[in-house]
Design goal:
Layout: E1 31-35, E2 40-43, E3 49-51, H1 65-76, H2 81-88, H3 92-113, E4 123-133, E5 136-145, E6 150-157, H4 162-175, E7 182-186, H5 191-199, E8 201-204, E9 214-217, E10 221-231, E11 234-244, H6 247-257, H7 266-278, H8 293-309, H9 328-331, H10 341-345
Parallel strand pairs: 4-7, 7-10
Antiparallel strand pairs: 1-2, 2-3, 4-5, 5-6, 8-9, 10-11
Length: about 375
């Protein structure tokens, strides 16, 4: 067992117990230090103890945190697992398990920071990657916000069907503010327009009184389709058409998001190239083919989350945009600094605050007894001789 040198601060911790009435509250004074040799905290409300790594990717690991962070940094930059195994003397299954744990944790971080319905997206591009695996073919759908290069959503599925498009667009909807003007550019896949209309809907009550509200699509949704025809692996023709909305509205949103002068899917295709470069299983010519969909999904979330929070974007950092090192999350106003890989892997997500359950039955006619007053002893007092 490695001794931890991580500093302990009870004021920045919260109780993770789902049954505790003080769960998720920071600085409430209910957390105290329980042990320093093996860092643990105690909640004074529920009297439960929990590890300092509870709720992080490092929970339950006996390896030093510095080693795990270095290995995950190499994985996020596209280093093959076999090279990490040779360099650090680890088992290949250990590295794969760490990658899956990190990806699952990054998925929670992405949902807690990006998918909170606080972004004015303006311009979104969506596309999918065909993944050639070991005895399987999978599809990875991706979507990004053009103006800040923020990765919004990702879905991995064995089939390229309406379910994949619906799940992808629902995640995009979870990031967006309600009833905003939005341009969505996609390729020629026929499932996209219907999925966009189904995802971006709001409940509208048309009649007074009792009755069910109907779902109405957003009025200012503009859908554009870009189809590329290739011959001998070269693009020879590009067809641009408006599936919904006016071309003038699309050009206005393009100018507002700095997404080019014509309808395109260049930004999401550039991100697809980044994903193929850094995720070893997506390399076009390699012997390390993916054989599990779960591994593709966790790797996608690890790369997407670190892309948003940890890596300064070259174009956003130029003088034309911000003029200083800037990540997509900083450009979107989700954070004010560049995160480290360790900060992402140790980020704790507070559970929802505890809500007292509603009391059922008839209301009380008498007040509750005061718990500080000692109870009256039961039975008849013993007679003194």
């Amino acid at each position: 067992m490695q001794k931890s040198t991580e500093p302990m601060d009870a004021s920045s911790q919260f109780c993770p117990n789902e049954m505790c009435c003080a769960r998720g509250k920071k600085g409430a004074g209910n957390i105290s230090i329980h042990g320093r040799k093996r860092p643990r905290y105690r909640c004074q409300m529920c009297r439960k103890t929990f590890s300092a790594r509870k709720g992080t990717m490092l929970e339950g690991l006996r390896r030093p945190a510095s080693l795990v962070i270095i290995v995950m940094t190499l994985v996020a930059y596209g280093c093959p697992v076999q090279a990490i195994v040779q360099a650090f003397g680890l088992d290949e299954r250990t590295v794969a398990s760490w990658r899956d744990r990190a990806g699952e944790h990054c998925k929670q971080v992405h949902e807690a920071i990006v998918q909170q319905g606080q972004l004015d997206l303006v311009h979104v591009q969506a596309d999918e990657i065909r993944v050639k695996g070991r005895q399987m073919v999978a599809w990875m759908g991706l979507a990004m916000m053009v103006s800040t290069r923020l990765w919004l959503a990702g879905v991995v599925s064995r089939r390229r069907d309406n379910q994949l498009a619906d799940c992808l667009l629902r995640q995009v909807r979870a990031c967006s503010q309600s009833l905003r003007t939005l341009l969505v550019c996609t390729d020629g896949w026929a499932s996209y327009p219907g999925s966009i209309r189904r995802a971006f809907r709001e409940k509208v009550k048309k009649t007074a009184g009792k009755g069910r509200a109907c779902l109405m699509p957003w009025p200012d949704i503009v859908i554009a389709t870009v189809i590329k025809r290739t011959e001998k692996k070269r693009v020879v023709e590009i067809t641009r058409r408006m599936t919904q909305g006016l071309l003038s509205s699309a050009e206005k949103l393009l100018q507002q998001s700095r997404g080019g002068t014509v309808l395109n899917t260049a930004f999401i295709e550039r991100f697809n190239g980044t994903m193929r470069e850094r995720l070893a299983s997506l390399t076009r010519k390699c012997r390390h083919a993916a054989h599990r969909v779960h591994a593709l999904e966790t790797g996608m979330y690890l790369l997407g989350c670190t892309y948003n929070l940890c890596f300064a974007h070259h174009e956003l950092s130029s003088a034309k945009h911000f003029g200083f090192p800037c990540t997509p999350a900083m450009a979107s106003g989700l954070t004010n600094h560049i995160w480290g890989i360790g900060e992402v892997l140790t980020f704790k997500i507070a559970p929802a605050p505890w809500v007292e359950p509603k009391r059922r039955g008839r209301p009380r006619s008498r007040p509750l007894p005061d718990p500080t007053v000692p109870k009256r002893p039961r039975g008849r007092p013993r007679k003194l001789a």
